[in-house]
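thread: overnight batch results

M.L. [08:02]
morning all. the overnight job finished for the chain we discussed friday. pasting input first so we're all looking at the same thing
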Amino acid sequence: MELEVQIKSLPTSPGVYQYYDRSDQLLYIGKAKNLKKRVASYFTKNHENGKTRVLVKKISHVKHIVVETESDALLLENNLIKKYQPRYNVLLKDDKTYPWICIKKEPFPRVFLTRNVLKDGSEYFGPYTSVKTARALLSLIKELYPLRTCAYHLSEENIRAKKYKICLEYHIKNCKGACEGLQPEEEYEKDIREIRNILKGHFKSSLKSFEALMLDFAERAEYEEAQKIKEKIELLANHQARSTVVHPSISNVDVFSIVSDESFAYVNFLKMVNGAIIQSHTVEIKKKLDEDDRSLLEMAIIEIRDRFNSTSKEVFTPFRVTAGELFKVTVPKLGDKKRIVDLSLRNAKYFRQERFKQIQIVDPDRHSKRIMLQMQKDLRLKGPPVHIECFDNSNIQGSNPVAACVVFKNGKPDKKEYRHFNIKTVTGPDDYASMEEVVHRRYKRLLDEERDLPQLIVIDGGKGQLSSALKSLEVLGLRGKIAIIGIAKRLEEIYYPGDPVPLYLDKKSETLKIIQQLRNEAHRFGITHHRNKRSKGAIQTDLSNINGVGEKTILALLKKFRSIKRLKNATFDELVQLIGRDKAQKVCDHLKIEHPPKPTS
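M.L. [08:03]
and the structure it wrote out:
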């Protein structure tokens, strides 16, 4: 059951999943564009491969890490498989890693593709999941900036001593001859700075160079070359130049983030070693004394670092926390470090959503209690609104005015408590007076019958309808004893008695969703009653014009068919069985219903 619940609550985002057996042994690591769909497929398909069938039988529980893109999932899968070497994964050898673009630390730096990241002071950009993209980027750079490709040591002494000679690359204008001192080092370094910006994804500073090169080819009628540059630019525009999963400049740090609600907090931990995420873990913390996020995160950091024996000297957090001299705390504001913190926060949020889904499945009482507490906080109520009632008026062109009251308990419809109201004291389409009438009738009856009153009343409408409902509560002595709000449809404003400024809830909040569900249900229930009433009125008016058909016959037909349309679709035999042959004949003649000819004597 636990595994089934885990699968149902997985997110549909890209990420990496990890399968464990009953003894908590890691069996398999995989990547997915859609985590929920991919993991579910293991348990719904008939697998031809025998090893896969054995793997599925051994799976006891699933863990996962959410990332931003499918490429990030691919990179993270690679890192985790190398570190943990699960039994059912094909092990990846280190010489089969992803390519990087290196700017070598040397005079007149070379720029080239490599799969080996060395700690020699050089700059590495990537990794690139597509070699084609990395090569296209290098090709574009070489089109823009003539760079040397030789491995000579171009020190000032060697250049002065004329140790090297220019080669073919200089003659075909791919190089400016730095080896013979034909290009100043300052000019070369300026090109390297622009290349660095391109590799970091900052294309704006070099956009003019791109356009100028393309236009230059076009002006010289070299349309094929211009098209090549255009295609390379388009390829790069669709590429995520940097990865948040692996970044060599961020080494050996712990990353923490937190999200919380009224009762629980969720802390995510990402461990980065040598620029790669090798671990992700999220914990749920139950609040005891309404602790704030800062104190909870400080406590969780110490506990999690101790649990995982972390000795990292630096910790990234979304806000400043107290650490003393244990480690350095960094609060990134932008760039790659900020993206890592955002990724941790995303994993914490997904974990929280999954817990909600799991609780909804295995512990619905806790789920509803959490929603009630959230509604209490969002709507500024004195207590949780376990019992809510919502009112809506329905009339079309003033005919057959009716109203509906729907009842929700613990955030769910209680349909046996729904009530219809036919407006009795109001003439014509007057929403305000109609609302005043039905609210008075509803709660006078509840008081007379000594039944439980709701904790919250929701009025479908703005300030006018809310004021009308308040008059009835005032008369009944209930004002201030029951919370009451109005919801206006246009911008979903929430109105409170005596407050001209409405409340705007987050469009994605569960509180607003429940209020909208209440309002929609009241509208649906009221419209259904209104239609039935109009249909009955139409059939009653039409049938009352038939000679020899009395009130009892009309009531019998109303009860059976409810509308003229259904009555016209009835068979003659059905009518005979219900009201007798003579009256059935008269109804068929009046409504022009086809029927067998009259029997001859």
